[in-house]
Amino acid sequence: MSVPERLAKNRVVLDEEESHIEIDQELCRTTGTGARIIAVCPAGVYSEQDGRIVADHAACLECGTCLAVAAPGALRWHYPRGGFGISFREG
User: Which of 12, 16, 22 is nearest to 43 (CA)?
Assistant: First the structure.
């Protein structure tokens, strides 16, 4: 089974009121964090639009890879509130 097929089995409950990812645009720009998090995120959560780094928090796999490469303070990331986020069904 392919990775996309396996990921499709997961269940995501989206928190429409609160994103679990906040981005400090200035720190991302001055430290190069923006390019790093775009490059390493396995889910493609991050992108650049009009010179800003944006996050599609609904696609997040909650793996923490972005935090591993981000400059301190560039991201404010926490797990989604109880009952929200991803539930892995396989793998």
Answer: 12
Residues 6+ apart with CB under 8 A from 10: 86, 87, 88, 89, 90
Place of tokens 């800003």: 52
Coil/strand/helix, residue 67 = helix
pLDDT digits (tens, 9 = 90+) for 1-54: 787 777 777 777 777 777 889 999 999 999 999 999 999 999 899 999 999 999
CA 17, CA 48: separation in Å to the nearest integer?
23
Handedness of CA 73, 76, 79, 81 (dihedral sign): positive
Computed on alpha carbons and rounded to an integer, the radius of gyration of the chain in Å comes to 14
Two structure tokens written together for 19: 């994103």
Strands 46-49 and 52-55: antiparallel
